[in-house]
């Protein structure tokens, strides 16, 4: 059987290629994308049933070296029902089976993976039309606080919770974080609480937050939990809408946010879910917002469950390079919620920057003991914040050669 030209995506097909056994990598030359290319750049791999080059979007990895005719027919029948085809890629010791067509139908993939002789399906075509690093938004850059995220380390700092009964504490903190070098002010107006009797926030705190912004010139970030919070925040002029860990998979809210900020100069700080959500799940949550028209989304790892002994959560700054491999979106880590104790925040901040984070979102208060919410336990002082900013800037220059 003569060889046929096959285009493969390098980043995602590597493992599937490795499973071809002793097939020469020189024989299986892999392209980085699916764009048209000169004939000499196409790889040559033995395939069955196709007379010309085909684009394929996922690899079916069986538990056996070669599917029997009956097994191959069963796979083919499933794919055909969803408008796809199968291409056999033969290695020296085993075969893998490429799906030709759109593999994003989860029902189809589930049926294939449910077959007893199939190990898994490795997807090549990204399910993220806009968030993918190869999408039309690949060159988009998010701007906030007078900088382009990724051009220099970005710092957002402020109190966990704004106390409307003590507005001066928030305003004094706002001035202090600006002097320390922060580009934006964070502050909780509404707070999701596990205990229904704990302080849940107050819309009056929004007035305090916006006054702090007016006095300092810093853009502000605050969390919303429902459509009413979202409406009030946008009407007040909040610059960055925060989606907290508890709402990271609230797809209805994500859609509402996407619709509300479409065409507006507003960012979204999207935190990772608390349940050790996968990289794909995290990026998919951002896709809900971006696909409605506003690409200014910032991904924010903030620690996950189950907790690591001694920390509030399980620190997850190590997810940064995994996100960077898959999406163009900036990544700003929240070390405060990750570790849950002020003494650990400086080290967690350095770790995040070392992993490649574009910035940090840190809880800070001029008098942590007078704050409400998490401030007494995990907010750093402005002086500590100043040291963190100085040290992480230096580490940034070393790590990125800037």
Structure description:
The chain is of the alpha/beta class and 402 residues long. The protein has 2 domains: 4-123, 2-Layer Sandwich (Alpha-Beta Plaits); 143-400, Aldolase class I (TIM Barrel). Helix content is 34%, strand content 17%. The protein is built from 13 helices and 18 strands. It has an 8-stranded parallel sheet. It has a 5-stranded antiparallel sheet with strand order 3-6-7-5-8. A 3-stranded mixed sheet has the order 2-1-4, with no helix packed on it. α4 links the parallel β11 (154-158) and β12 (184-186). α4 packs parallel to α13 (382-400).
Kindly report the CATH topology of the largest domain: TIM Barrel
The number of domains is 2
Can you tell me the CATH superfamily of the largest domain?
A: Aldolase class I
| Quaternary structure of the protein | single chain
- The overall strand count is 18
Major beta sheet, specifics?
Answer: 8 strands, parallel
Residues in helices, as a percent range:
25-40%
- The class by helix and strand makeup works out as alpha/beta
CATH class of the largest domain: Alpha Beta
What coarse outline follows from CA principal-axis ratios? elongated
Q: Between the first and last Cα atoms, what is the distance in angstroms?
A: 53 Å
Number of helix segments? 13
- Strand content bin: 15-25%
Low-confidence runs = 1-56
User: What is the radius of gyration computed over CA atoms, rounded to a whole number of angstroms?
Assistant: 25 Å
Estimate the mean pLDDT confidence. 84
Provide the CATH architecture of the largest domain.
Answer: Alpha-Beta Barrel
As laid out across the biggest beta sheet, the strand order is 16-15-14-13-12-11-18-17
